Amino acid sequence: MKPLEGTVVLDFSQYLAGPSAALRLADLGARVIKVENPKTGDNARQLSLNNLYADGDSVNFYTINRNKESFAANLKDAGDREMVKKLIAKADVLIENFRPGVMEKFGLDYENARKINRRIVYASVTGYGTEGPWKKKPGQDLLIQSLSGLAYLNGNADQPPMPFAVSIVDTVSGAHLVQGILACLIRRAKTGEGGNVEISLLESILSFEVEAVTVYLNNGRRMPERSGFNNAHAALGAPYGIYETKNGYLALTMGSVVRLGEILGCRRLTEYTDPEVWFTKRDEIKKVLQEHLKQEETGHWMSLLEKAGYWASEVMNWEQMTSHEAFRVLDFVQDVHRPGQPGLLTTRCPIRVDGKMLKSEKWAPKLGEDNEKIISDFHLKGEEERRI
Known about the structure:
- There is one protein chain.
- With 388 residues, the protein is α/β, with parallel strands linked by helices.
- It is built from 17 helices and 15 strands.
- The strands form 5 sheets. The protein has a 6-stranded parallel β-sheet with strand order 5-2-1-6-7-8, with helices on both faces. A 3-stranded antiparallel β-sheet has the order 9-10-11, covered by helices on one side.
- Strand 1, helix 1 (17-27) and strand 2 (31-36) form a beta-alpha-beta unit.
- It is elongated, with a radius of gyration of 25 Å.
- It starts with 7 loop residues before the first strand and ends with a helix.
- The mean pLDDT is 95.
């Protein structure tokens, strides 16, 4: 039995942060019902990555909304809204990421939802919170990476701000939302009362940046200075970074520069005996290291470093990584295609419970695919209405 079996989650959210949280709850065993506009559905259905679509929906949508059901309901329609309220009465969790005030307009905000069901755990995602001058700004990943200072940490010192090339704000925020929901479910088991979980994308990514923000707050409020060469962490000294070798790249983490020089046979590195200069002269040290590492192939250096127990790794692309035995033993890929459609591969839940992987082959639903089943299971209409 999965931990959340018997738990009903209503997912009103779109795009990535809220839906990724709902996906994680689904993989943990919850029944997740995606409540969507009957005309457009989740806007992510048409938000493609690399122009990839499957059965009319973007592969991006498919990946984040597998293992769910879809209930199409027009919240502006009184009849549909009444069915949604009946769902809320029987649900355990509700997730929404509308602009502040939208759910209140429909009478589906937390205060009204708890009148319907005092046990509901009501979870909301906003871009910047519900107060302040930014509350109506678009809560989009790249914009928040840019506003939060995150983009200023990437790239070398002479390069412009550089964002992460994945939706890191949404993904981290979804994980924080799950933490809040599970905490409230635990409390509800003790008290019988639900709760209101609120996260903002901005607060989530600032929490993710805790190392750099802490340095800033305690260092005269000066931004950490990015390394001018092979920057990988603005607040760490040499050798931290990625280096070119004769046939590829090599990543090095924290460690003694002197010992690294001894392992690699680089006499010039052994001359930096004062640990303080590993930070103050990090660019100089990194350039010495880079010149030395380009003389041999990655495998040669890795054999020396691994034998010495020095933390390092070859730098792989996805082709190299997914073909490696270390990836294959994880059994991390699953097929979630819709019946009658070609296979569609994605990743499984990364959590194991009681030694078991949490896999599900249930596909992402077509818009409104599960309306009749949900109406029947939750008795959303009377007999006369169902006959009509």
